[in-house]
Amino acid sequence: MRQLGWKGADHFGISLHNAIVMPYIWHYGTEEQKQRWLPAMGRGEAIGFFGLTEPQGGSDPNTMLTHARREGDEWVLNGKKRWIGLATIASVGVIWAKDEEGVVRGFVVPTDTPGFKATAIDNKLSMRASLQTEIELTEMRLPLDAMLPEARGLSAPFKCLNEARYGIAWGVMGAARSCLEAAVNRAQTRTVYGELIGGKQLIQGQLADMFVEYEKGLLLALHLGRLKDAGKLSYGQISVGKLNNVREAIAIASKCRAMLGGDGITSEFPVMRHMANLESVRTYEGTDEVHQLVIGRELTGIAAF
Ligand SMILES: Cc1cc2nc3c(=O)[nH]c(=O)nc-3n(C[C@H](O)[C@H](O)[C@H](O)COP(=O)(O)OP(=O)(O)OC[C@H]3O[C@@H](n4cnc5c(N)ncnc54)[C@H](O)[C@@H]3O)c2cc1C
């Protein structure tokens, strides 16, 4: 197994590895798969990726075209994946593909398997410290036991994604706090019309409103955490946390950016970076619209996807 550095694996990559890929192997893998991969992954010697999204769209993974056919005692996989974190530096990953009956199944794929090719997406303007890739699978042959035996259908990939979505509700509040801290510091030091901007009522009103949303977001995340500990956290509640906290973090970052004036668009402050990165967070682990639809389904009992 390759000894790998974590270059390209930012906090997003580490949470992808820890909160998504390892739990899949842990929940759905065979004892042999667990023994082969989890200790090395836990030590950071083997990096993992999660391959669900495809070039034709990620919100509706049921449209997936990647497929697995059985030939003797092998699986043969063909297809493409897009936006997959870490795959160019990973040793292993879980790839989702439809079997011959059209059922979505997970496969544990060592990246040195012939027919596996990953290419970095290098034109991103958001999450630039993080590594996303495109994957091409061409007649990639895997042994029969590469399939995660306990994962059948789309509920399997969604199970661990929900863990990550819950984590996002906390993470984005960290970005919001960083932006707020920068804006408060600036308000205490920057003078306009002969007065500190922090002494202007319009500025204090904005700072107070942002702080209220930040505190509400933190309390929401805490509430979800307590429900989770009690085993009572529903998919709809996770969607409330992800949708609200990302939306409010984006609004806070944008207002703080404006409060910093021209300097706010420079790398002197962390705010513009958070703004750009939060745009990715808005999209991955379910877009705003997907979470609205999850909440809508819970409220009405009607799936309107
Ligand atoms: C930085 C980053 C990292 C990522 N990492 C991974 C990874 O490691 N592994 C992985 O598998 N994927 C990953 N993704 C992919 C991510 O999960 C998808 O981008 C996401 O699911 C959205 O899919 P899409 O980009 O194809 O948008 P689309 O599905 O094409 O959606 C386009 C627009 O249509 C809207 N929409 C979709 N359905 C509906 C509907 N029913 N009604 C109304 N509007 C709708 C969406 O909200 C969106 O605004 C990552 C993405 C990014 C940006």
Brief digest:
With 305 residues, the chain is α+β, with helices and mostly antiparallel strands. 48% of the residues lie in helices and 20% in strands.
Folded structure, characterized:
The protein is α+β, with helices and mostly antiparallel strands and 305 residues long. It has two domains: 11-152, Butyryl-CoA Dehydrogenase, subunit A, domain 2 (Beta Barrel), CATH 2.40.110.10; 157-300, Butyryl-CoA Dehydrogenase, subunit A, domain 3 (Up-down Bundle), CATH 1.20.140.10. Helices cover 48% and strands 20% of the residues. The chain contains seven helices and ten strands. The chain has helices spanning 11-28, 31-42, 155-189, 201-229, 235-259, 271-283, 288-300; strands at 48-51, 67-71, 74-85, 92-98, 104-110, 116-120, 132-143, 147-152, 191-192, 195-196. The strands form three sheets. A four-stranded mixed β-sheet has the order 1-4-5-8. A four-stranded antiparallel β-sheet has the order 2-3-7-6, with no helix packed on it. Strands 9-10 form a two-stranded antiparallel ribbon. α4 (201-229) runs antiparallel to α5 and α5 (235-259) packs antiparallel against α6. The two termini are 42 Å apart. Mean pLDDT is 94; it is low at 1-6. Flavin-adenine dinucleotide binds at residues 16, 50-53, 57-59, 83-85, 127, 132, 280, 283-284, 287, 289-290, 293, 305.
